[in-house]
Amino acid sequence: MRITEIVCQILRIENVEAKTASSQDSVLVRVRADTGLEGIGEADSSPEMVKAVIDAPFSHNIATGLRALLVGENPLETDRLWEKMYRATMYCGRRSLVITAMAAIDMALWDLKGKHYQEPIHRLLGGKRHDRILAYASILFGRDGKRTAEIGRRWREAGYQAVKFGWEPMGQNEQLDLDLVRGAREGLGDEGTVLIDAGCVWDARTALRRAHAFADYNIGWLEEPLSPDDYEGYRWLRDRSPVPIASGEEECGRQSFRPLIDQRALDVYQVDLSRNGFTDAMYVKQRVEEIGARLCNHCYTSPVTVAASLHWLSTCRDAFLFEDCVEDSPLRHELTHEKVQAENGFITVPDRPGLGVTLNEEFVASRLVSESR
Prior knowledge:
The protein is an alpha/beta fold. It is built from 14 helices and 13 strands.
């Protein structure tokens, strides 16, 4: 079997807003083989930038576009192809953008591999340990505590036992920060699990003060309080914080995660399959489990990444929570024929071959803004 075509498609909804929500556009990668099979993948990154990485022509041996590297290769050889992409982009890659493009291709290769063997990806990864996972509703904060409480009540009534509130407007001042967390706890009641995503807004000492203040509201974790580059700060904070510290969603590939793991800097390592692919996400999983920390997915895009995240997280020993984006976006609800969302607070792992989801081609055509092959 050989790869004959790599198609890159950019989709965008009509009403893109100035907010931290990557469910407003998507870059899909479709890897096609001479057997007629197609695998699909997605990157949570700037779609046009990812497309440029895939489309770029050959420059020299360690700076070239990804499509040129892979056409004619055997799509089943996922580990070797990951290493080939990494080696051939050393001058322009190694972290961030290029890795996200590699992740989308890697996801598509694993989807194609599953379809070839007629097995779900979790079986090819070694076998799932969980048929379903407790999900938390992932949503942005309201403008203040009162509005945040209303949002919390809405998703608690929808059946979620846990809700995560994130990003804007946290970080403007201490009074507002406390008001937001107070509202989150009020909305979920005493029994609900409140998760707080600060959105990379503080220095380590401020984050520690907030962690002590938020502990009074019994939060499940404090996510991304610091800049993602502040590895030493995370280690310092994690050693002193009264609440668990979570981070990792910005990390792209094993090299990016390694300093956090080596320093035991986090309680919860959040891995985004659309920025790491299955190949490197499995490496991260093994390393994190070795140090006794916990794993969770990060996912705020479409059902393609949701399905990929479920396959990966179901193989983890302690899959205690699953991030379930509840943004009201057409990309979140209409991109695939299958609905991949929690019901009564739990989300079920797909069992069909590959990712287990199929694209709604009519929807793709209606939101398509750019395509290359």
